[in-house]
Amino acid sequence: MTCDCSRRQMVRSLFTGSMLFPAVLQQMFAETGDSLAPRAPQFPAKAKRVIFMYMPGGVSHVDSFDYKPKLIAAAEAGQTAKNGRLYVRPHWDFKPRGKSGIMVSELFPHVGDSIDGICLIRSMHGDHNDHFQATLGIHTGSVTVARPSLGSWVSYGLGTENQNLPSFVVLAPKLPYAGAQAWSSNFLPGCHSGTRVTAGPDPIPDLTRRAPTQEIEDLELGLLARLNRKHQTSRPEDPALAARIKTFETAYGMQMQMPEVLDLSKETDATLQLYGLERGSTKGFAWQCIVARRLAERGVRFIELIDQGSSDNWDAHTDIRSHEPLARNIDQPIAALLKDLKSRGLLEDTLVVWTTEFGRTPTADSPNGRSHHNVAYSSWMAGGGVKPGIAWGETDDFGAKIAENGVHVHDFHATILKLLGFDHTRLTFRYAGRDSGSRMWREMWWKGFWFRKW
User: Which of 73, 208, 249, 323 is 20 to 30 A from 316, alpha carbon to alpha carbon?
Assistant: First the structure.
């Protein structure tokens, strides 16, 4: 009987399912140019990983991070904007926070107390005023055609430090606008798509092993790996097949390590109290933040946290006061995450990002509500080489338009890539006969003023 599989395929077959499997795979990845093998960035980087927090629906910048006293005066005087709509004053008072004195509203008291470690961006703007398109924009840079997500580009550029976990994990209790397109790899290899994890007894489908014994599972996986490689030898140029095989290999590693990541029983009472999470609970943003820290500790490159889905979110058309319970859900956990990362020595090389798809109008959409506003809103970054305790950019007196140092969504993405050690114009992938990549995002220029000196 002859065998037409290579020595490397045979070794992979023999070791699949054994305790040696991860180490053997890691060595073979380096030999074969596997797309998830850890790689160095294009130039020395400040950040090694990203925790990306996305709040669906459109958080009101004028009620949170963009203090506008003239808006308050105009609203109290009953003034209207050029469109004839009444100005609406912020529903929460602002006050200077920290040594930097940056104005933050009472909507985010805990984040406000951490403002000295944050670079606040008050001059964000995007390309679309609709949730679906704006959600794609903040994730992929495009509001018109399907593109790989930012997390997928980071995974493609850096690979993963842990072959037992995906390089890109999404912690999302519900699907956001645009659904899984928000973390799709699109034309990049499929292994760079985000893996969604939810709280509860079944965080990832089929995470629990179902084979009767470990020995039987080892035999099954070994045979599967051998057949996969044999099938692949006749289709060496099929990226979808390679991605599918890699997905199964990652899934095996996740069965070994992901349950341990999601097990918070060994977290101290002090840590749980810091985040505001009851022991044994998997509810709320606090659980997502602790799991994000545990994933960052274990080498995951890009971790996205999404607090709500495409409904019951920050889309406050009828009553801006609906922001209050949503802010209460995320405020303490976010501040705790920053403190926890810093105490463990992780904040220095972990870039923490907070954003939404657009802001809200300074005028009324209803007596107490605000409409979508993509031409001006706020986001922030912390850690990972970002200058702390500064506010970048300005809007006009009413928070309606950019007045100084505008930051387009593409600038935002390019800045993140810069901190990770990438020139966005050189991070490309050969697709459909041309180099497609992050450089196709329009006018992406990073703002060097945001960074610490290199």
Answer: 73
Compute and round to an integer the Cα radius of gyration of the chain: 23
Q: Is 122 helix (H, G, I), strand (E, B) or coil?
A: strand
Buried b or exposed e, range 54-73, using 16+ CB within 10 angstroms: bbbbbbbbbbbbbbbeebbe
Calculated CA dihedral for residues 118, 124, 128, 132, nearest 10 degrees: 0
Q: Which of 307, 398, 328, 308 is nearest to 360 (CA)?
A: 398
Taking CA atoms, 196 is separated from 129, 171, 419, in Å, by 26, 6, 25
What is the Cα 100 distance to its own chain's centre? 27
> What residue type is 175 in one-letter code?
L
The whole model's pTM is what?
0.83
Question: For residue 50, which amino acid is it?
Answer: V
* Domain range 7-450, CATH class: alpha beta
pLDDT digits (tens, 9 = 90+) for 61-97: 999 999 999 999 999 999 999 999 999 999 999 999 9
Residue type, 328: R
Distance between the two ends of the chain, CA-based, in angstroms?
A: 61
Q: Please report the beta strands in 315-361, taking only residues with DSSP state E, as ranges in sequence order.
A: 350-356, 359-360
Delimit the domains of the chain by residue range: 7-450
Residues 210-253 pLDDT 10s: 556 667 766 766 776 777 777 777 776 666 666 655 565 665 66
| Chain position carrying tokens 């080489």 | 385
Place of tokens 């390089």: 167
